[in-house]
Specification:
Helix 1 (33-49) packs across helix 5 (141-166). An eight-stranded mixed beta sheet has the order 1-2-12-9-14-7-6-3. Strands 8-13-10-11 form a four-stranded antiparallel beta sheet, with no helix packed on it. The chain is globular and about 55 Å long. It has 366 residues and is of the alpha+beta class. Helix content is 29%, strand content 20%. It has a single domain (24-361), classed as B-lactam Antibiotic, Isopenicillin N Synthase, Chain (Jelly Rolls, Sandwich), CATH 2.60.120.330. The chain has helices spanning 33-49, 62-76, 80-83, 135-138, 141-166, 198-203, 255-260, 306-311, 317-321, 328-339, 349-352, and strands at residues 24-26, 52-56, 98-100, 105-108, 113-114, 117-123, 187-193, 207-212, 218-222, 229-232, 239-241, 248-253, 270-273, 284-290, 344-345, 355-357, 360-361. Residues 193-292 form the Isopenicillin N synthase-like Fe(2+) 2OG dioxygenase domain. It comes from Exidia glandulosa HHB12029. InterPro entries: DIOX_N, IPNS-like_FE2OG_OXY, IPNS-like_sf, Iron_ascorbate_oxido_reductase. Residues 25-122 form the Non-haem dioxygenase N-terminal domain.
């Protein structure tokens, strides 16, 4: 095991920001039928009213989390030429496992200032994917695998079970299409936002990444004290900052849950702003996990849910348009290809409203 050193988080901001009022789902209650029923009601309300929520008591130690941040930090300390050896072949066509360098987006067309976002994605450890990593990742791969698997079993499986209960479906309905041993495009991500100067931040409107939705089922985001994540309230459309909460995960709903529920659960709009002034001198390191159903699942509205039938959520965008309903694999790579488009200038309307597949177009989220 590599000597990674301890990981020290940045001190939280002292700025008085308009924080989102998010609820916390306590997975300690998951282990009784009564607790699951309570949590299911809690979850569906959180998903429909905010789209983002916190999770606590998920049976993964803070030490294990800190180790992952330390691994991510060590990876980003590598020279660029070493990291670039792990850029996936086919990046421009939507491939995403491996290293994605910064600078693919033009944030300020007048000055040519580009993004400073780097990504390293690690796919499932279930035999479906090749694993070719730099030494710092390779040396810690058993620990990374254990961590990724524990996120699946300790967080995602319970969330999928609770969603099924909330929709009056068999408890294993969603876990059966999110099994770890079946091929899907889940991945663990180390993500680095390198800092801009205050002048650079001002030149890009203090906005590092525009409003967007994630493409999978749930996204898990580990506590990051550098304030930058903002969410758009689904009911008021106001933007609010997401406050770091000790010993929690931040979770949001994504496109595929919206498709599977006919829009009953909406994919949550979020963006990344420049941090407040007392944190603009540091880089921002993120640790995330992206969950997606099996690649061969067709993204049609669940027909068996009495809740969706009663509430009238029986067709998603593809079904309403009369276009073919894609599989998870088809939608994943179509949207990833759009996301990875090179040299797009911020505000380009052709990009912001592009048709991902017939029946589904992106939107501008002001």
């Amino acid at each position: 095991m590599s000597t990674l050193g301890s990981y020290t988080f940045v001190e939280e901001t002292k700025a008085d920001l308009p924080w989102a009022e998010l609820v916390t789902l306590d997975l300690a209650k998951f282990h009784t039928p009564e607790g699951r029923k309570e949590l299911a009601s809690f979850l569906i309300k959180a998903l429909r009213e905010k789209g983002f929520f916190y999770v606590k008591n998920f049976n993964i130690s803070q030490e294990a989390v800190n180790r992952q941040f330390a691994i991510g930090r060590r990876f980003y300390e590598l020279p660029l030429e070493e990291k670039e050896k792990y850029v996936p072949k086919g990046l421009d066509d939507g491939k995403f496992n491996g290293y994605v360098p910064a600078g693919r987006r033009i944030l300020n067309p007048e000055t040519g200032l580009r993004d400073r976002v780097e990504v390293y994605n690690i796919p499932k450890f279930n035999g479906s994917f090749e694993h070719d990593h730099p030494e710092v990742i390779e040396d810690n791969l058993p620990e990374i695998e254990a961590f990724a698997r524990s996120l699946h079993s300790e967080v995602l499986d319970p969330l999928h079970a609770l969603l099924a209960i909330a929709l009056e479906l068999p408890e294993d309905y969603f876990t059966n299409i999110h099994k770890y041993n079946v091929k899907s495009e889940d991945h663990l991500r180390y993500m680095k936002y390198s800092k801009f100067t205050p002048e650079e931040n001002e030149s890009i409107g203090n906005m590092w990444g525009g409003g967007h939705t994630d493409l999978g089922s749930f996204t898990l985001l580990f506590r990051q004290p550098v304030a930058a994540l903002q969410i758009r309230d689904p009911l008021t459309h106001e933007w609010r900052w997401v406050k770091p909460q000790d010993a929690t995960l931040t979770v949001n709903a994504c496109d595929m849950l919206s498709f599977l529920t006919g829009g009953y659960v909406q994919s949550t709009v979020h963006r990344v702003a420049a941090p407040p002034k007392d944190q603009q001198h540091v880089d921002r390191l993120g640790l995330l996990y992206f969950s997606r159903p099996h690649n061969d699942v067709v993204l049609q509205t669940v027909k068996d849910s009495p809740v969706l039938q009663r509430e009238g959520f029986t067709q998603n965008q593809f079904e309403k348009s009369g276009n073919p309903v894609p599989t998870v694999e088809e939608f994943t790579f179509a949207k990833q290809k759009w996301q990875r488009t090179k040299n797009v200038a911020r505000g380009d309307p052709n990009y912001r409203t592009a048709t991902i597949l017939p029946g589904f177009s992106e939107q501008v989220y002001a």
